[in-house]
Specification:
Blueprint: E1 2-3, H1 8-13, H2 19-22, H3 29-37, H4 43-56, H5 61-64, E2 66-67, H6 84-92, E3 100-101, H7 103-117, H8 120-123, E4 127-135, E5 142-151, E6 155-162, H9 168-177, H10 180-193, E7 201-208, E8 215-220, H11 222-243, H12 261-264, E9 268-269
Parallel strand pairs: 2-3, 6-7
Antiparallel strand pairs: 1-4, 4-5, 5-6, 7-8, 8-9
Helix pairs in contact: 3-11, 4-7, 10-11
């Protein structure tokens, strides 16, 4: 099913496993189980969410975030986040700590979001922040994803921030180590399951968090998507076994080890957009 105009709370309430949880089951059911039971929202996650909202749906920012904090009249500075004054301020404003940005964080997020909005793939998109739910045919597991941006009948895309330079080696390493290639396959399979067969391309828009704030949009190669699909099936199989009460061990499909896929495969097709913006 396709869910448009959906906020984060409504998305979280939908049935299904999302990729941010599923990815931990690629190699080990123990790893997946540990990550599910020890999940904590980090500062980087909060900042990333703020960047996404400011870049893709700024009209919803004030519904999810509040800036600053209670001011200590003696110092003119914001009370520390561990103080009772800050806790009382959160209660008064009906917020929790994951919904509060410092003034500095807000400035950084706004600058990154502005650069992201001007990226080619996002600038040419006509759909933003919609959810897909489906049932995986092989495992029978309910799945869901929240798409950042898309151009109807052409591509799906996701906004990422990165600390390092936007070289092809760095980006290839990033999409392998952070399993972004699997995320792309997962989202495209969600589109396929919903009969949106025209969505067969996946773009990543990367924005640097460093002072340069350079931005680039890159189309993920077909071979990387196919590898992602294979690894997602391994994730879903391990997740199903975990749901059935089995926790133990690593599982490899081959009796040997090989060098990483990002070295053996070319991940990027630069013919579509390409280039630093």
């Amino acid at each position: 099913m396709i869910h448009k105009n959906i906020n984060r709370a409504e998305y979280d309430a939908l049935e299904g496993i999302n990729f941010s949880k599923l990815k931990h089951f690629r190699d080990s059911r123990n790893k997946g189980a540990f990550e599910l039971s020890n999940f904590k929202k980090t500062h980087a996650m909060v900042l990333g969410t703020a960047i996404h909202i400011l870049a893709l749906e700024p009209q919803n920012f004030e519904r999810q975030f509040i800036i600053g904090g209670p001011i200590n009249p003696k110092t003119g500075e914001t009370y520390g986040r561990s103080t009772k004054a800050f806790a009382d301020w959160l209660i008064e404003n009906g917020r929790d700590m994951s919904e509060v940005l410092s003034e500095e964080d807000y400035r950084d997020a706004s600058e990154i979001a502005e650069r992201a909005r001007n990226a080619v793939a996002i600038n040419k998109s006509d759909l933003f922040e919609f959810a897909l739910t489906w049932t995986d045919e092989k495992s029978g597991e309910a799945c869901k994803c929240l798409v950042d941006f898309a151009q109807n009948g052409n591509y799906i895309g996701d906004l990422k921030t990165i600390d390092s330079a936007l070289s092809e080696d760095n980006l290839s390493r990033e999409i392998y180590m952070r399993q972004y290639y699997q995320q792309a396959a997962f989202y495209l399979d969600g589109a396929r399951a919903n009969k949106i067969i025209d969505f067969d391309k996946f773009f990543f828009t990367f924005v640097q968090k460093s002072d340069e704030k350079e931005t680039i949009s890159k189309l993920l190669g077909d071979e990387s998507i196919e590898i992602g699909r294979a690894h997602n099936q391994q994730c879903l199989e391990n997740f199903k076994l975990y749901r059935d009460g089995l926790r133990s061990g690593y599982k490899f499909k081959e009796a040997f080890l090989d060098i990483p896929n990002y070295i053996r495969n070319s991940y990027f097709n630069t013919d579509f957009f390409g280039g630093v913006e």
